[in-house]
């Protein structure tokens, strides 16, 4: 049996899942990451890891016990509120759901800890890639160094430096941006907002705008405030001035219940703007020897609850395909890509611009409730 060493660009959840599955099967792998260290950046908020994709990846990585240990009990609870604060739908967390919540950073730590020391090469920011022919590619780093590899995987997110080897497609603005805000010591310092959110997640949708929030570990609320506006509209807001930025965003929610707008105005952090971009839905490319993509590098979408799950499943499926065909890398890559194209094209998009284009507040909320109860398959 022969194995081709694998070079992964990006130490996110998808890239690390691939690295772990390859390690389990004895396939040599290195991961090159732009960040200087595992602690260089906060790794985002809470993720629900689904039993039909993300958890399958965890199983393939042999890390289910470690995963169960980081699940936040009770966080699967969910409610949909009207803009006046009326609870339209509520679902308790009885422990039987298939989407347990974990902190992204804790999940990443599990994957990192499962890899041999030195697998991840930190501080390696990619500045370019090019084909060398015969299925080999060169990767150039910001420090002036480079490498050539016979199997390159771009797990480097929305603005992938590997993607141009395969396709000219680039992400485009979806028309919707998110402003995210944290509220700390919520039960004592922000009781109205904490009561509205409850023990899990809250969604308050309306055409062109939405407030989503969830209770993270400890007593922290994380709010995501979504608005369908041009990027130029957001450019006029000074996000370095927390009070002014919060007031400007909250003005777009005039007339909403105060316990909902408090998630904007009472934040303990400076609001962070996150424009939503997406690649063309159903993007495919012709097979290029020696290189492929996974996760957002391959199928960036507006947030829909599936991004991290799909990235991890991509990594697991690619790892398994390479392990099953060690003497025929191209057949393994072709098999993986066909499955990845199918999975990403089938994903239901119900947040961001899609749901915001529904005409009335009532229909927006009811569509969301129908999706959660399985009555609307998109």
TrEMBL record:
GO terms for molecular function: monooxygenase activity. NADPH binds at residue 41. It is an enzyme of class 1 (oxidoreductase). FAD binds at residues 48, 104, 296. Residues 4-337 form the FAD-binding domain. InterPro entries: FAD-bd (IPR002938), FAD/NAD-bd_sf (IPR036188), TetX_monooxygenase (IPR043683). Its cofactor is FAD. Its EC number is 1.14.13.-. SUPFAM superfamilies: FAD/NAD(P)-binding domain (SSF51905). Keywords: Cytoplasm, FAD, Flavoprotein, Monooxygenase, NADP, Nucleotide-binding, Oxidoreductase. It is found in: Cytoplasm. It catalyses: a tetracycline + NADPH + O2 + H(+) = an 11a-hydroxytetracycline + NADP(+) + H2O. Consists of an N-terminal FAD-binding domain with a Rossman fold and a C-terminal substrate-binding domain. An FAD-requiring monooxygenase active on some tetracycline antibiotic derivatives, which leads to their inactivation. Hydroxylates carbon 11a of tetracycline and some analogs. HAMAP family: TetX_monooxygenase. Belongs to the aromatic-ring hydroxylase family. TetX subfamily. Monomer. This is Flavin-dependent monooxygenase.
